[in-house]
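B., you asked whether I could sanity-check this one before it goes into the benchmark set. Here's the sequence:
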Amino acid sequence: MRIKKIILSFFFFASFSSIFATSLNVRILTTKVIQSFIFSPITGTYDVYGDGVLLLNSDTPGIFQLTIEKDSIILKTFERTIGKYASLKMKSKQLDGAFKIKSVIPEGKVRTYEDDVTIGLTADKKQFLLINNIDIEKYIAGVVESESGTRTSLEYYKLQSILCRTYLLAHINRHVLEGYQVCDDVHCQAYLSRSVDADIKKGVYDTKGLVVVDDDLNLITAAFHSNCGGQTVASQDVWATPTTYLKSVKDTFCLRQPHAKWKRTIPMEDWKAYLQLKHKYPVDDSLMLNNATSFTQTYGRAIYFTDKDLKIPLKIIRADFQLKSTYFSVEQEGESVLFNGKGYGHGVGLCQEGAMRQAKLNRSYKEILNFYYKDVHLVDLSALNYFRQE
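And here's what the prediction gave me:
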């Protein structure tokens, strides 16, 4: 009965076919308006399909330029133009196939990916729609590297892999009506390239299939951020949605890490104008102005900038001034106001720098998981797939 409850809970988030699929369609270079690019293999060989028909087999040299002309895609090699197509697919002949894409118009950096890519145009025919058809675990490795870098420990990579996998499966059909499943931007998860880091790959495959569920056996919102500044934030204080597992947690492990502290100075007149014009704050009242220039969060995180009659959500001030976090104090400094801040990010869930520090202190990924997320459980998807037949 309990296993069946788990399965029904997973079905709430996505279809069984999506959850147990081994491959994924990810839109890459989502934020780039690409009108011409170069494709070339890194490892393996690629067959080229145009409008569903095999054009070139894997014995053909695989460096191509693709350009938009009116409502078609022009495919070229260095020697000749191959033809015009509505869509193309570069399909790897090997399991370890990898390729690179270099944007020509506009000029961009080289990005590297694994497996296959489907190439089409957006609805307005003005830019490429590039979809990486990739094994899910390879995608997770790319996300882990994009989200956390390559300079931490294996135990941390195990934890980050589980969280990225959980987040993916909870949002796997976010873009399905647009012809793919997830994008490569932070709207889904950052996915900047393939990973070639040995520890990241090991962390992913050592935890293959593991996801996190809450006490009601639903996939959790696997939120994470760079640095909490010493205390994480409850989900309802940022997103107005309470959960049983995203609670505020005291975290001393991140306090000496790179993003633990920050400062920002703005002119006093700009600060007064902002408060008065946007929030109707009475800056002409000397007591209220003093409160606005002597704000502290000494005893932990606050939700609002002021208390009593006039409450301004700190998350709004953070967004308007593009501050690193909502965990800050304000003080007058001559003709300016100084923001003394702690942490980097929304503060909900895993504090990455705190977790990295804990991993270096030899805490296991399970211990770190339960430090930041309360009353959660690890579930192996392969076990769910077995009991789904019951």
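One thing to flag: Confidence is low (pLDDT under 50) at residues 1-16. Otherwise nothing jumped out at me.
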